[in-house]
Amino acid sequence: MSTKHEKIVKYIESLPVGTKISVRQVAKALQVSEGTAYRAIKEAEAQGLVSAMDRIGTVRIERQQKKNIERLTFAEVVNIVDGTVLGGRDGLHKTLHKFVIGAMQLEAAARYIEPGSLMIVGNRELVQKMSLEHGAAVLITGGFEASEEVQQLANEQQLPIISCTYDTFTTATLINRAIYDRLIKKDILFVEDVLANQQLAALHRGQTVKDYFTIVEQTGHARLPVVDEDFRLVGIVTARDVADASVDDSIEQYMSRQLHVVSPKTPIASAAHKMVWEGIELLPVVQNRKLVGVVSRQDVIKALQLMNRQPQVGETVEGMVVGGFEEVWNDDKSLSLFGEVNAQMTGSVGTLAMGPLTTLIEHSAVLCVQRNRKVDMVVENVTLYFLKPVAVDTRIEVRARILDFGRRFAKVDVEVFSGSERTAKALLTTQMLER
Questions:
Q1: Hey, which bits of 205-289 come out as E strands?
Q2: Distance between CA atoms of residues 192 and 185, nearest Å
Q3: Which of 142, 253, 352, 416 could share a disulfide with 424, CB 3.0–4.6 Å?
Q4: What is the pLDDT of residues 94-109, one digit of tens each?
Q5: Which CA distances in Å does 226 have to 47, 192, 229, 231, 328?
Q6: pLDDT in tens, 347-373
Q7: Which has more confidence, 311 or 10?
Q8: What is the C-alpha to C-alpha distance for residues 259 and 283, in angstroms, rounded to an integer?
């Protein structure tokens, strides 16, 4: 039986895209308290079903697929530029495919306008009208208003016309930054990405130990989730738990209620770290308190290997830090990174900041372990026990050397040199992800 919370989320999902949603409306429609309605709407927002906009309210939007995640809705553009919607509110849920800056003659601008694009322009009414007529939304910069004729056209075309106080360059930069951030997120693999074609294997708490062994034989997983009648996760059972049990005993007698779970939106790297830290081979995936899948150590390893093969579309902070460093493999099987401390890597006093330094140390240690043994791993601990300031434009060497290499872990010593002077020293522990 579905809970009130789940019923509200399903109700919101059934609404047409573009529908405005309020706490009071949902509470009245489903006869629940406003507090319950508010929490469910927030859950729907986390699932990408609705979007909250200043001065507009909450609107039902189309859930974005992973491949289209770099596209912004016009509603999101309003929030990015702190804009005001002058017309065409019914089109706020639509996505923009590209944006065009109208700094050209009218005839020239027409060649660049396509349906689904966003025209960024000042107080040029002819360009605004032409854009709407060609299926493009309009973003007016400089705080200018739109004429009643343009606003009426926007309403007829169901294309937003937005006004913001920023200049054209700042506006375009803000939107480009938002798209750039989406591109970075597109490259990140989440738990939900490995659940797409997965068949869920779980035990109901009324089943027996015999049923457990049957599912283990079918799936190859010795760690299985246990659910109740509504498919809510209530426990975990392993081979060790039922080692001395009779085949006719109820599984509920032996299951563990100490649960380690992840959500579909948990990054694969976080799931990997939790598996290593807790020493488990399988994690249940829970959404709205219901079991929606499991992620195994094999799933995580395959996903991490896929991530390592992907080209980086958007540049991350780590990429900016290590991008200018050259990798050198030494004869003693240590690894060195050579590069200069640029201005972006420094703090307020012009010396190498702790964040970039830690990134370089961790990156060199992981590379060193991977060069010595082809394994997947997660960094478990970093201890920095020696540090001197390093000025901007200084050329440094980050040298990583393995101290101990076990079957499931590695200890790596990392030193940072400026010329012949040692400026930092750290010890890292990594744990292997074994199949």
A1: 224-227, 233-237, 282-287
A2: 14
A3: 416
A4: 888 788 888 888 888 8
A5: 25, 20, 10, 9, 50
A6: 888 889 999 999 999 999 988 988 887
A7: 10
A8: 9
Of the candidates 406, 409, 222, 399, the one whose C-alpha atom is nearest the C-alpha of residue 297 is: 222
Residue 343: pLDDT band with limits 50, 70, 90? confident
Q: How many CB atoms lie within 10 A of CB 204?
A: 14
pLDDT digits (tens, 9 = 90+) for 30-70: 888 888 888 888 878 777 777 776 666 787 776 655 444 45
Domains by residue range for the chain, with CATH: 4-60 (1.10.10.10), 66-187 (3.40.1390.20), 192-305 (3.10.580.10), 321-433 (3.10.129.10)
CA dihedral over 42, 49, 22, 230, signed as positive or negative: negative
What's the full length of the chain, in residues? 435
pTM of full prediction above 0.85: no
Beta strands in 240-289 (DSSP E): 282-287
Contact 205, 255 (CB under 8 A): yes
Q: Mean pLDDT, to the nearest integer, of 310-327? A: 70
* 299 vs 196: CA distance, rounded Å: 12
| 250: CB partners within 8 A, 6+ apart | 205, 206, 207, 208
How far CA 10 is from CA of 2, 6, 198, 212, in Å, comes to 10, 6, 23, 33
Q: Identify which of 180, 176, 150 has the alpha carbon closest to the alpha carbon of residue 163.
A: 150
- Report how many helices (DSSP H) and strands (DSSP E) the chain contains, helices first: 13, 21
Rounded to an integer, what distance in angstroms lies between the CA atom of residue 269 and that of residue 294?
A: 15
Q: In which band, very low, low, confident or very high, does the pLDDT at 231 lie, cut at 50, 70 and 90?
A: confident
- What is the maximum alpha-carbon separation in the chain? 83
Contact by Cβ (8 Å): 60, 18: yes
Compute the distance between CA of residue 310 and CA of residue 268 in angstroms, rounded to an integer. 15
Specify the amino acid at residue 48. Answer: G
pLDDT tens digits along 138-155 = 999 999 999 999 999 999
β-pairing, 376-387 vs 395-405, is: unpaired
Q: Are 226 and 252 in contact (CB under 8 A)?
A: yes
- DSSP assigned state of 251: G
- How far from the centroid of its chain's Cα atoms is residue 356's Cα? 22
Tokens read off for 350: 């012009």
